UniProtKB/TrEMBL annotation:
Domain Hydantoinase A/oxoprolinase: 208-500
Domain Acetophenone carboxylase-like C-terminal: 518-682
Name recorded for this polypeptide: 5-oxoprolinase
Coiled-coil intervals, chain numbering: none
Transmembrane segments: none
Pfam families: Hydant_A_C, Hydant_A_N, Hydantoinase_A
Domain spans labelled Hydantoinase/oxoprolinase N-terminal: 9-182
């Protein structure tokens, strides 16, 4: 085929352990789709090299590609590993200590020795300038830039590499911030700069300041990475546009992402969850619990009526002992825990077994990889239990080092005073319990019954644990997508060009004119920005949500605003919808006045989104897919003889019942006894759980 006859799409996703690739080629004439996937090791700190490696390993020519999307962990890695730039902060007089004061929301509240997280900018690099806006955007005191040259001179002398600008109430009126940016550009044009209004237009001064500082902190690192990736792809012959996966489940242009790279802080998980939402739409399951189990972490999110929840209440490094750091950018609403295939099992001083959050990572990795790992991990436990085929480890590309596995698990079993088999079974059960608790946080804890949802599992470990988790939660069924090991990369191909606009503007809940004006203003701004990317105004889809609360309360909930002219009837319906949303979230409603806090505008446009087509049925027999049988320890159901299937020989229409193991080169699907398996029209494995 020539390039004219086909449409070729490539997506890559850089994870903590592996870099994934998905390649789709669609014949324009027949509609037939060719799918190829590949994995290679992630290559820190030069992550772009891992992307180029996996492309070459797959034998692809990027010169023939029509679309290229990319997701990466480079931003979150720079933050958690403290490998960003030295930042200087310019703020309003009297507000240099906002980062130090932070919030009183420490999780370890009764710990008298508690220490707040250390700010990313030391106090001597937090400088003030006069001038002030009020919360409605009115100038209270004029901006005075006379001291800015001396501030910048001090920053330069102290080796500052990026400047963050966050002035009080700039969300309501960014005029002062824009003036500061212009002056910095004139006095010190080579320094990286970012202002709060470029990232967020929501109130809460601590969160805005933290977000601006963290964005400046990662900006030079992320810009260099994206520029090296772009240059590497161009050297390989790619001439199209490079799209970068965002944390809001959409892709954005390279230019826009380089300006504000903090928006891709959770780009990898976001693409997987968007892929789960699109998969749910395709198979007729709009309510989905999505779970991504990788080598280091497990992440989950709830999708209702085909919609992924996007919030700006996102924190990094928040745990039982630390309040963490807020990042007020649109991020898919998720829960993340330190449990994955590489999670290390360990015994505490009270002889209690734990799994994670420490991970063996890619190097040395689980003991089975034979790279020097000496700690038992979830992967090692699954090997010992027969859930993973030791003779088909990593699709046969790696010889499992069972001597190292036995050594690691025997050492752990000795500490517990149990057999190796019991220790391995305990690792799997504890890992499953940790992940069930995470899934409950996004479902039961928010008023949703898991029995109304389908569990979609992906990542290298999702299929191995999905059925056990689904049985515990009581979900309708478990779906393992075709290409589950690289599903996050697949999700990028299903994504639209998307930007989320959050704007705070306080008004009465019945202020029809004010709401209409605000929606029109931000929608117009969104279309203007998309126009700069070459997207016609009529191609931009606008979806408004209104942030509402009961008067005098602190936090708001989002209520969708239907299309059409705003009249009194629609305002009354909006308020009634608010009561329903609020009651579902908090279990009660009040008979008091309602306020509008602001709006959330979702603006999107299609950029070559992939459309799935049914897989062909060749008439192959199920018996031809059977590889053999082996004893498998299902942890909760004991040891059973399972039929082993070759995933590559399964096709739509095939049905069978567990106990079974389905072996794919990138993952293993563990089917518990009594569960019915059905391969659907698109090649996904749907597992109907026993009652």
């Amino acid at each position: 085929m020539t390039k004219r006859d086909t449409i070729s799409r490539i997506a890559t996703d850089v994870g903590g352990t592996f870099t994934d690739l998905v390649y789709f080629e669609t014949d324009k004439t027949t509609g037939r789709q060719t799918v190829r996937t590949e994995k290679s090791d992630t290559t820190p700190p030069n992550f772009e090299q891992g992307v180029l490696n996996v492309i070459r390993k797959a034998g692809l020519s990027v010169a023939e590609a029509d679309f290229f999307a990319h997701g990466t962990t480079v931003v979150i890695n720079a933050l958690t590993e403290r490998k960003g730039a030295k930042v200087g902060l310019v703020t309003t007089t009297g507000f240099r200590d906002v980062l130090e004061i932070a919030r009183g929301n420490r999780p370890d509240f009764f710990n008298l020795s508690y220490e707040k997280p250390t700010p990313f900018v030391e106090r001597y690099l937090r400088q003030e300038i006069p001038g002030r806006m009020d919360y409605r955007g009115n100038e209270v005191a004029p901006l005075d830039l006379s001291g800015l040259p001396a501030i910048l001179e001090g920053f330069r002398a102290d080796g500052v590499q990026a400047v963050a600008v966050c002035l009080i109430h700039a969300y309501a009126n960014p005029t002062h911030e824009k003036a500061v940016l212009d002056e910095i550009g004139r006095l010190w044009p080579e320094v990286a700069t970012v202002a709060s209004h470029q990232i967020t237009r929501e109130w809460r001064e601590y969160e805005r300041t933290s977000t601006t500082v963290l964005s400046a902190y990662v900006q030079p690192t992320a810009q260099r990475y994206l520029e090296r990736l772009e240059a590497g792809l161009q050297q390989e012959g790619y001439e199209g546009r490079l799209y970068i996966m965002q944390s809001n489940c959409g892709v954005d242009s390279l230019t826009s992402t380089k300006a504000i790279p903090i928006t891709m802080v959770e780009s990898g998980p976001a693409s997987g969850f968007w892929g789960a939402a699109e998969l749910g739409r395709i198979i007729g399951e709009p309510n989905v619990l999505a779970l991504d189990i990788g080598g280091t972490t497990a992440k989950c999110s709830l999708i209702q009526n085909g919609q992924v929840s996007i919030k700006t209440d996102y924190w990094i490094e928040r745990d039982r002992k630390s309040a963490g750091y807020p990042i007020m950018v649109p991020v898919v609403d998720l829960v993340e825990i330190g449990n994955g295939g590489g999670s290390i099992a360990w015994v505490d001083d009270f002889s209690k077994l734990h799994v994670g959050p420490q991970s063996a990572g890619a190097v040395p990795g689980p003991a089975a990889y034979g790279r020097g790992g000496t700690n038992a991990t979830t992967t090692d436990a699954n090997l010992v239990l027969g859930r993973i085929n030791r003779d088909y480890f990593c699709g046969g590309s790696v010889i499992a080092d069972m001597a190292s596995v036995d050594g690691a698990l025997d050492a752990l079993a000795d500490k517990l005073g149990v057999s190796q088999q019991e220790a391995a079974r305990g690792i799997v059960r504890i890992a499953n319990a940790n992940m069930v608790n995470a899934l409950k946080l996004v479902s039961l804890n928010r008023g949703h019954d898991p029995r109304d949802f389908t569990l979609v599992v992906f990542g290298g470990g999702g299929a191995m644990h999905g059925v056990a988790l689904g049985q515990e939660l009581g979900v309708k069924k478990v779906v393992v997508p075709r290409g589950a090991p690289v599903f996050s990369a697949w999700g990028m191909m299903m994504s639209d060009l998307r930007r989320d606009y959050f704007v705070t503007r306080l008004m009465d809940g019945t202020d029809r004119a004010g709401l209409e004006a605000l929606v029109g203003e931000i929608s117009g701004h969104a279309r203007e920005q998309f126009g700069k990317e070459g997207v016609a105004a009529d191609a931009v889809n606008i979806q408004p949500l209104v942030k509402m609360r009961y008067r005098n309360q602190e936090h708001a909930v989002e209520v969708p605003l239907d299309a059409g002219p705003l009249d009194d009837t629609r305002i009354a319906a909006l308020i009634e919808d608010f009561h329903g949303v609020y009651e579902r979230e908090y279990t009660y409603r009040l008979d008091v006045a309602v306020e509008i806090v602001g709006i959330h505008i979702i603006a999107s446009a299609e950029v070559g989104k992939l459309e799935m087509v049914p897989q062909p049925r060749t008439g192959a027999r199920l018996e031809d897919a059977i590889k053999g049988r082996r004893e498998v320890d299902y942890a909760t159901e004991g040891v059973c003889e399972a039929i082993i299937y070759n995933a590559e020989k399964l096709e739509p229409g095939m049905v069978f019942t567990g106990p079974a193991i389905i072996e794919d080169p990138g993952t293993t699907i563990v089917v518990h006894p009594g569960n019915r398996v059905e391969i659907d029209d698109f090649g996904n494995t749907q597992i109907h759980l026993r009652s």
